[in-house]
Amino acid sequence: MKINPAFYRKTDQAVWTGRNDGTDPAVQRWHQCIVAIDLSKEELPILHSNQKGIALIGFSCDEGVRRNGGRTGAKEGPVNFRKTCGSLPVHFEQDILFLDLGDIICTGNEMEEAQDGLAKLIEMVLNNNYQPFVIGGGHEVAYGHYTGINAFLKNSAKNDHFAAGDYSGNTNLSGSIGIINFDAHFDLRESNENGYNSGTGFLQIARDCATAKQEFRYLPIGIQQNSNTKQLFDSAEALNVNYISAEQFLPAAQSALTEKILQFIEESSVIYLTICLDVFSSSVAPGVSAAAYNGIFPDPFFFNCLQTILASGKVISADIAEYNPTYDSEQRTAKLAAALAFKMINRERRKI
After folding, report:
1. How far apart are CA 164 and CA 152, in angstroms?
2. What are phi and psi of 131, to 5 degrees?
3. Does a structural domain hold residue 350?
4. Which of 18, 127, 170, 324 has the largest count of CB atoms under 10 Å?
5. Residue 190 to residues 220, 231, 244: CA-CA distances in angstroms?
6. What does the alpha-carbon distance between residue 259 and residue 315 come to, in Å, rounded to a whole number?
7. Rg of the chain over all Cα atoms, to the nearest angstrom
8. What is the CATH number of the domain that holds 75?
């Protein structure tokens, strides 16, 4: 794949800095093991037999947020995320190749072209057996991300080939992609006078599924009634979206919630996991495009739910969306995003 230079920016290796406790693998930090690749000049390194690869991709775009009337600034999320993550300790296996592939960028208002660039990059990364991890950017990242996963699975099924990713060698490509979205919003909006935006992505996916005669499988977790119109709830019902509201997301309901999540995963071929940081209370995540004063909290209960999803072995790709450093008091949101990334990349694995 040739990267479109108009929608691509490499990462300078110097961005990755942090604490240095030595070169022994047991004390290394992310900045010591991640390798920045310039896709305008280099190919992805070929993984050895049984070797695993993680590919970090930035989506530097908040045009969808602007079109949706939100607070812009999330396009600066990827570079600030990298600066916050440099000192994270390495806990993944030593044979993992950890790459930074740079950013897909939005030039002007060309959001659709940026989404297309992300989709092509996701497909290429999966074809080369790497596990993608994307940091946004607005939640318009979801449509491009999903499109890339879907293209990879379709071509894999056609070629009777399934890349050896981190999803337990699942070979059932005839089923559907299950989308799990931690979010205060459904993002099932119709397009407005500005076109598609950060709130339309999952409706776009639903309509693509209908056109392709595929099942639309979508589980939003953390939905806020005061953040969604009645029409959006009606749209979710019409699309058979079985959501979990913020009010239901309680430790007292853990058993029922876990059962619901596991059933959704069991009935999906693979899982695309996306976390919109506005699902969290603004007290812990002020740096987002649409802050929620009463969102959920990243407490042990939340991380147990996240672990349930990661441990299934079905997560084919994941992203974090809506990190907006412009409004991030004391880097609280950046540190939360780093903690989420740490958990998602260092996942413990078990089969359902």
Report:
1. 13
2. -95, 115
3. no
4. 324
5. 17, 10, 22
6. 17
7. 19
8. 3.40.800.10
Under 8 Å CB-to-CB from 320, ≥6 apart: which residues?
81, 134, 135, 136, 274, 275, 277, 337, 340, 341
DSSP string, 152-212: HHHHHHHTT-----SSTT----SS-EEEEEE-SS---PPPBTTBS-TTSHHHHHHHHHHHT
* Full domain range(s) for residue 319: 5-345
Q: What is the mean pLDDT of residues 325-352?
A: 85
H or E element that contains 123: helix 111-127
Element (H, E) at 8: strand 8-9
Percent pLDDT > 90 in the chain is 88
Q: How far apart are CA 19 and CA 145, in angstroms?
A: 32
- The reply to whether 351 falls in a domain is no
- Rounded Cα gap, residues 345 and 304, in angstroms: 15
CB atoms within 10 A of CB 193: 5
Helix axes 332-345, 300-310, angle to 10 degrees: 40
Q: Is the dihedral of CA 180, 91, 89, 33 positive or negative?
A: negative
Domain assignment present for 182: yes
CA 145 to chain centre: 8
Give residue 131's Cα distance to chain centre.
Answer: 11
pLDDT, one tens digit per residue, over 107-143 is 899 999 999 999 999 999 999 999 999 999 999 999 9
Closest-CA residue to 140 (of 233, 220, 203, 84): 203
Q: Is the pLDDT of residue 206 over 90?
A: yes
Beta strands 177-182 and 97-105 are unpaired
> Is a pLDDT exceeding 60 seen at residue 350?
no
**Overall domain count for the chain:** 1
The answer to whether position 197 is within a domain reads: yes
Strand extents, DSSP E, 30-106: 35-36, 53-60, 97-105
Phi, psi of 220 (to 5 degrees): -85, 140
The rounded distance, in Å, linking the Cα atoms of 343 and 345 is 6
Q: What are the pLDDT digits (tens) for 240-276?
A: 999 999 999 999 999 999 999 999 999 999 999 999 9
Residues 182-203: tens digit of each pLDDT = 999 999 999 999 999 999 999 9
Does residue 299 contact residue 345 with C-beta atoms inside 8 Å?
Answer: no
Tell me the CB-side half-sphere exposure of residue 296, using CA atoms within 13 A: 27
